[in-house]
Amino acid sequence: MLKEFVLGFGDKEVKLALPEEQIINVVEGRPADAINDVPAAVKEALRNPIDSPPLAKVVTAGDKVAIIASDITRQWIKYDQFLPTLLNELNDAGIPDGDIKLVVSLGAHRHHTDKENILVYGQEVVNRVEIVQSYAPASEDFVHVGKTTRGVEVYLNKHVVNADKVIMTGGIVYHLMAGFGGGRKAVMPGISGYSTIQGNHSFCLHDIVGQGINASCVSGKLEGNSMHEDMTEMAAMLKSAFLLNAVFTPEGKFARFVAGHWYNAWLEGTKTVAEIFGVPISAKADLVIASAGGFPKDINLYQGSKTTDNAFMAVKDNGVVIVLLECRDIMEPPDFSGWFNYESLYDREVALRKAFTVPGFIALKTGLMAKQVPFIVVTLPENKAFIEKAGLIAATTIEEAMTIAEEKLGRKDYTINVMPHAANTVPLVQE
Questions:
Q1: Does residue 138 register a pLDDT over 80?
Q2: Sign of the Cα pseudo-torsion (341, 345, 349, 350, in order)
Q3: Catalytic (active site) residue 144
Q4: CATH superfamily placement of domain 38-276
């Protein structure tokens, strides 16, 4: 008996029929209700927070308030839809717009243009409050606030450190290094100095040079994740007064707002993310067939890394992965594709230890995963050379990929996990 699947590939769809008896899991996220009235939901969260007095009781007239907000790389957070409500609540509590600064948490990303501020936060917010940008390499903007137990010197942005009250904002999703995004990431890397970011991110790499990455810094893992634990120590040094974070539906609409204590409210939000996007599976399979879900999630290999990472979590050690990634902009972004110019994974790792970047880490992890299990990428014919340079196997059709996979597995009675929306679904093996 064959079961048919329709998988996204760029703007198109690929059909695939598989023997039903060999399929052990179809990994799909749970549907989640979208919030209809966003301002009302934000008010409710701010007035009935988690492990904190309401926002109106946390701030006092005369306080200078800093709101940390994510940059344009997190445009999916849709700040323009909820920041005005946060500002209004602060106004009602006696904090005028003139006493509020919005601090753009660039980390080491480039500065925003004025147009990008409007694009990310909305014209109303840009008109109402002062916006300052926290750019990690500008060392004169950072002050020393302490040292973590792992020995990282902590430099944080002076605009935030000097504020009377700090409000952290952001969106919570799975994060392939820190376990989950949002929460303490507003501080690290958001408003941290360059050396502090380098120090923290180095925990994603193995203690021993040449051993690659730290196996504890993965999606969904917080306990024992040294990068997350170090970040949390840094955020604690700031004594943030309040947090407002959003959780999203699989379609990218608001599913929930969590507000209150900077850590506990965020932690509560991660549970909602796990409920929506964490998918329990009965076992890993010999063959994983995964689609990002089509464009734009498969626009390039960098975006496709969410798919390869999640697919890897569902395959046996001696298995094979097939991923459908059109990659119409295969060479984008250059700060990712350039890492594959290193001849060996060792050279890639050594360069990353000298100057850590997230694209570099993903390039290293991609190579290490492909060394462990064969990754067959169904992609455009013109991408073949780059895919092979990255250490992956290129195929132009799903049929060709299946033939290669069966050759690698050496048998016909293999088990299969299918992941139709692998960019968004994290497989959680049930012990």
A1: yes
A2: negative
A3: no
A4: LarA, N-terminal domain (3.40.50.11440)
